[in-house]
Amino acid sequence: MTPPEQTEPRGGDAPRSSDAPRDRAAPHDRDTHKNVIGQQRVYQGRIWDVLRETVELAPDQHVERDYVAHPGAVAIVAVDADDRVVLVQQYRHPVRRELWEVPAGLLDVAGEDPLAAAQRELYEEADLYADQWEHLIDYYTTPGGSNEKLQVFLARGLRNVPAAERYARRDEEQHMTIRRVAIPEVVEIILAGGLMNPSTIVGVLTYWQKYGR
Fold first, then answer.
1. Could you write out the DSSP letters of every residue in the chain?
2. What pTM, to 2 d.p., does this model score?
3. Catalytic annotation on 173?
4. What is the pLDDT of residues 116-167, one digit of tens each?
5. Catalytic residue among 134, 173, 185, 188
């Protein structure tokens, strides 16, 4: 059979994706400061508040948005000499689950440097010091409903905190389990859907992309 002749797309046909115009510039997020013409504190909580703001998207377009005003947080991908990452298991009440997570915590000390906060959280949650620190990646946890920015650090050169110097954990943290798991195994579990903590997913996969492949 003779193959059909190739024809040009008719005027009403959409171009193939390969023929469509492309924006050559790589996509990057950018700061955009819209005019806030009204603000109300709807809820004041122990850790974070809920704000309601009226935002001017354009001269003739105003919208009202509620969001969680969050102090920010840090997370630590702590990797030992055997390429194992430190994970802690913690009960998270909003989702009614015990999640395996990298150590993390709030920027709830006024004026505290994020790196100092990460060092503090590794000490408090995992009973560890680290000799080498590196900024790994930042991300917004839920940008549609919160301004929380989470800064992830890589910690290496791990040392155990002596028993007499360890932090006395309480509340949910009092019952945490601490494990060290090989990075490739954690990556496999993440991709299979077995770990759902966002800092663990973002932090471990970033480390794997940069150093583990």
1. -PPPPP-PPPTTSPPPTTTS----SPP-------EEEEEEEEEE-SS-EEEEEEEEEETTEEEEEEEEE---EEEEEEB-TTSEEEEEEEEEGGGTEEEEE--EEE--STT--HHHHHHHHHHHHHSEEEEEEEEEEEEES-TTTB--EEEEEEEEEEEEPPGGG-----GGGGG-EEEEEEHHHHHHHHHTT----HHHHHHHHHHIIIII-
2. 0.83
3. yes
4. 999 999 999 999 999 999 999 999 999 999 999 999 999 999 999 988 877 6
5. 173
